[in-house]
Amino acid sequence: MSMKIPHRLYLSEDQMPKQWYSLRADMKDKPDPMLNPGTLEPIGEEDLYPVFCEKLAHQEFDDVTRYVDIPEEIQEFYKMYRPSPLIRAFNLEKALGTPAKIYYKFEGNNTSGSHKLNSAIAQAYYAKKQGLKGLTTETGAGQWGTALAEACAFYNIPLTVFMVRVSYDQKPFRKIVMQTFGADIFPSPSDTTNAGRAMLEANPNSSGSLGGAISEAIEKAVTTEGYRYVLGSVLNQVLLHQSIIGLESKIAMEMLDEYPDIIVGCAGGGSNLGGLIAPFMQDKLLGKASPRIIAVEPASCPSLTRGRYAYDFCDTAKITPLAKMYTLGSGFMPSQNHAGGLRYHGMSPILSKLYHDGFMEAVSVEQTKVFEAAAFFAKQETILPAPESAHAIRTAIDEALKCKETGETKTILFGLTGTGYFDMSAYGAYNEGTMTDYIPSDEDLAAGFAALPQV
Amino acid sequence: MSMKIPHRLYLSEDQMPKQWYSLRADMKDKPDPMLNPGTLEPIGEEDLYPVFCEKLAHQEFDDVTRYVDIPEEIQEFYKMYRPSPLIRAFNLEKALGTPAKIYYKFEGNNTSGSHKLNSAIAQAYYAKKQGLKGLTTETGAGQWGTALAEACAFYNIPLTVFMVRVSYDQKPFRKIVMQTFGADIFPSPSDTTNAGRAMLEANPNSSGSLGGAISEAIEKAVTTEGYRYVLGSVLNQVLLHQSIIGLESKIAMEMLDEYPDIIVGCAGGGSNLGGLIAPFMQDKLLGKASPRIIAVEPASCPSLTRGRYAYDFCDTAKITPLAKMYTLGSGFMPSQNHAGGLRYHGMSPILSKLYHDGFMEAVSVEQTKVFEAAAFFAKQETILPAPESAHAIRTAIDEALKCKETGETKTILFGLTGTGYFDMSAYGAYNEGTMTDYIPSDEDLAAGFAALPQV
């Protein structure tokens, strides 16, 4: 079936996916199992029950179920802000003078401002079903914290958020949004946990890290009756929920008789990228198609392009199980001048495995080039992108410009994960010409690698 | 035709209106003409050419053409962010326990964050067609300035924005958004115009007013070769462009076999309200239907509910023609504690006339009650509303609660004009309990009325 190509294509409610898709079911070589850091033995689903909701722990471990029914209630919530539009970037193409066809899936049309809500509502739902008394989490740039605050408000679940201190200080408005949705916010490191107090003792002026905030949030969850911890990226369960992005995209592209030659997504922990590529990667795993799939990461936090594929802790205080992933070491912190998210030391184990096995590529880009792309895109497409999303824009533009040189009419699909309304300080620095780049030297990275656990 | 009612209804591109609708064509009693403040004689279209684009001046005066073709280029631009969704507030209804059916038209899904882009792109288009070298405008809360910056960026038109100083100081991020789209921003009063210098001389610490910023923007336009001035509300041309909101709403409601019993919109200068109600008011004017139409304004800036229906200047420095409208006097300034927009001293002459002739109602609401409604709405509907939009939410909720008392199943439609991402200081004050209300006394208003021009 084919149709006239609209600027924005919205699926009808009837067309929305009723199941999530799990990539692992189609991976012949599965990601390596999580290990107990003491015994180095693989852990089981039940081992995670003290930390995660049981249903989510199950999703974390189940690597054979291909399609998971989306509970009715979650489907109903999705309908409040989904389907998200698949947008043809007619104006961007024209401004670039490229023969390439550029599509993007825009996930910013909800108050949380990003795709994070897709998993937040799922995790809040399962928490409610289990009768939990509250949840804890961490947030870096603030998108995940906002999304989860929104989801918890919907289900009346108390929420405590540990927000990386540099964001807490620089993004007071993010904090207020979360508070408006009823969440309690602490800057991390905080003096409310042992992990936080240890970090403050080591460095009273610590600006915090995502890994550190994770340590605090987990400690708070496991030491509070009826609480559990939730995470917005990296985990297998998160990629499962985020598959809605790719599934919708694929249906929409089929309606247009299109199939992407190149799929581009920004990659921090991998939640958006893993969701966007899911059904296309399935085609690739099953030998049905062979799109190029490109992960884009900041040059200042290059876990895929310069990290090690190794077992590592998921947090700074080393209280989590070990996961096999591309990592810069659990103590890694992006430099102070790094704007926005995409600041996690590791990467989704699923994506790490796929990258390691050659099913996808990765590039890193510098932030001034990223903001250049963001401002150019905004002027053409009327959407002010989040810095994270702009990483994908940068690479999509670069690929479209290559098509201009070669004259190839490739079809490019990228994920526009969210809006930049809370990142105006960074845009201001870019406008003023005071934004700088930072690429860690090999020496900078060596310490992180040296501290990797011996497995 | 009827269908299962979805959460969000998006028209297809084919269904989008290709013409704007002009309410004046169907008003038996037209609004009174604009007057030259010196001669008190009606002015003509050509008299506005030094200030406005010719085509826009024409639209300002034409009160007989019922439907105006939307130029192809504008239709194409609209398709980048329209149609906006008509949303059924299922969750809000449930939370309120009301038998009422609540729909809202959500105009916040674009970077400008509001409906203002609908007219901004039209005005920028006509400026481009006329070969203008630049545009000037004013902005209060910043929505109009952002929308126009976006539209001017698209057409590569230089733009100078005079931003009410209190907003300039309190909303640095709004400023950065406009700068990212390439606009030059001055706080008003500024020392770059005679009007601004006079205001600074009278009060060096002036926090500015919308009327004052208008004076500066007009002066700058008429004293700069090839420049013209544009305005985001109040004017007839703006209501014409904004009719796209109501036209889309009506088509969507017809698809659902619905017709609103009550239509609610916030009212500052009247751009959103006039657009939302246009085709429904047409039905009312033609005796085809009789929906209640309610304008909601801040208790702190009550032009309809407590103003005079009189000829007045549209700006503070008294350089504009006189318009017959509900007004608090051109020197009126909302109190410092007033958050957000809806701070203009007057009201669209079209809406003023319709209100005066009994075709619509008006209510005023206090801002703490407005933010209470905003926070409640956000938790149910996943959209963080702009303070302006929340005025309509407040009244829609109040009407829905009346239905709960009476058991009536009324259909309520309200306009959700935009998002509150740049209003987090105000949300913060509400969350902290430090937000206050202000209702001007009769004495406060008397000075403004005394200064009205003698016509």
Structure, briefly:
Chain A is of the alpha/beta class and 455 residues long.
Describe this structure in words.
Two copies of one chain form a homodimer. With 455 residues, chain A is α/β, with parallel strands linked by helices. The first copy, chain A, folds into two domains: 23-64 and 116-229, Rossmann fold (3-Layer(aba) Sandwich), CATH 3.40.50.1100; 83-113 and 243-450, Rossmann fold, CATH 3.40.50. Chain A contains 17 helices and 15 strands. The first copy, chain A, has helices at residues 54-61, 72-81, 90-96, 117-129, 143-155, 165-170, 172-180, 194-202, 210-222, 236-255, 271-285, 303-306, 349-356, 367-381, 387-406, 424-432, 442-450; strands spanning 8-9, 19-21, 67-69, 86-88, 101-106, 134-139, 159-164, 184-188, 227-229, 262-266, 292-298, 308-313, 322-327, 361-365, 411-416. Chain A is globular. At the A-B interface, helix 2, helix 5, helix 7, helix 14 and helix 16 of A face helix 2, helix 5, helix 7, helix 14 and helix 16 of B.
The CATH class designation of the largest domain in chain A is: Alpha Beta
Low-confidence stretches of chain A: none
CATH architecture of the largest domain in chain A: 3-Layer(aba) Sandwich
Helix-strand makeup class of chain A: alpha/beta
Domains of chain A (count): 2
- Strand arrangement within the widest β-sheet of chain A reads 1-4-5-15-10-11-14
Number of helices of chain A: 17
Reported by name, the CATH topology of the largest domain in chain A is Rossmann fold
Number of strands of chain A: 15
Calculate the mean pLDDT score of chain A and round it.
Answer: 95
Envelope shape of chain A: globular
Amount of helix of chain A: 40-55%
Largest sheet of chain A: 7 strands, mixed
Q: Per DSSP, what share of the residues of chain A sits in E-state strands of 2 or more residues? A: 15-25%
Oligomer: homodimer
Biggest interface pair, counts: A-B, 47 and 47 residues
Round the Cα radius of gyration of chain A to an integer and report it. Answer: 20 Å
Measured between the Cα atoms of the first and last residue of chain A, the distance is 52 Å
